[in-house]
Amino acid sequence: MKHNEERLTREREEAWIGDAVLALFVREWILREQCALDGEKFIRFTSNDFLRGIGNPTQVEARIGCVYRDEGMAEAYKYIEDNLLPVFLGQERARAQRIRNGELKG
Question: Is the residue at 105 inside a domain?
Answer without folding.
Answer: no
